[in-house]
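Dear Dr. K.,

Following up on our conversation at the group meeting, I've run the structure prediction for Cobalamin biosynthesis protein CobD from Methyloprofundus sedimenti. I'm pasting the input sequence below exactly as I used it, so you can double-check it against your construct before we proceed with anything downstream. Let me know if the numbering doesn't match what you have in your notebook.
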Amino acid sequence: MTVALALLIALILDALLGEPKKAHPLIIFGAWAGYIEERLILPRDRSNIYQKINGLLALVLTTLPITGIIFIITRLPLLNDILSPVILYLCIAPKSLIQHTLAIYQPLQKGNLTQARHALSMIVSRETGQMDVQSIRKATIESTLENGADAIFAPIFWFVIAGPAGAIFYRLSNTLDAMWGYKNSRYYYFGFAAARLDDILNWIPARLTALSYLLLGDMHKAWTCYQQQSPCCESPNAGVVMSTGAGSLNVNLGGPAIYHGQPKIKPILGTERIATNQDIKRANLLIFLTTLLWLALISLGETLA
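The predicted structure tokens came back this morning:
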């Protein structure tokens, strides 16, 4: 089975089924990672280097066995043809991303900020309880742009590079970063390996995603925002994606936010144009068009190879 065909089937499965409602493999993996964490995380007064070593060990124990099993069973051509699109389907979540953002867009259209804040809290780690309309819009668009890279295009990239095992390894590593990548007293050292691995695995996909956003929107503004704003961002990958995406959409993003009770000053991204509710749908359209672009380019690449 070609990569393009596997991707097409995975996208069709996602469009028809969405994310599994019960017993998603990533939920099961999260429980397994939590089990490993409780047995390897050390008291906070222990040496930082031992915390990092145990965090690396936890990363290896949680990701490599599963990745190895997928690599072995997909060596068989028949199993590979059957499992490849299913595994990729489980590693991407375009329909879920659109559903979550529409769950914010719809109450915003009705002026129901309470419901919009609650829906937003399902997809962001920042505090949403006191957000005004503009903050909700901006956070929704930022999350759409960033999750497009993390939850759709990076898994596809690693599927192209390393097959089902590559997509699985990326998705598991990204999940661990979401669990352990916090810069707080519990995870700062224990989650160091997971956070750095996620940065490495996302470096190329993030830039390819940003390039796609640039090509499918306002190219001049996207390029300007990328050059001027991405170096100011804390994340080496999210900043690239969100600054370019904000410029592509010609919209103002970024700014102060509250995380775990602490205010955080984030750089201003994009242009001076104030976001509207319709820009949430435009961000979704950008994700959809980028998905089609990647499918077309992968198909073309396989045809020419």
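Two things stood out to me. Strands lie at 252-254, 257-259, 262-264, 268-270. The chain has a mean pLDDT of 94.

Best regards,
J.T.
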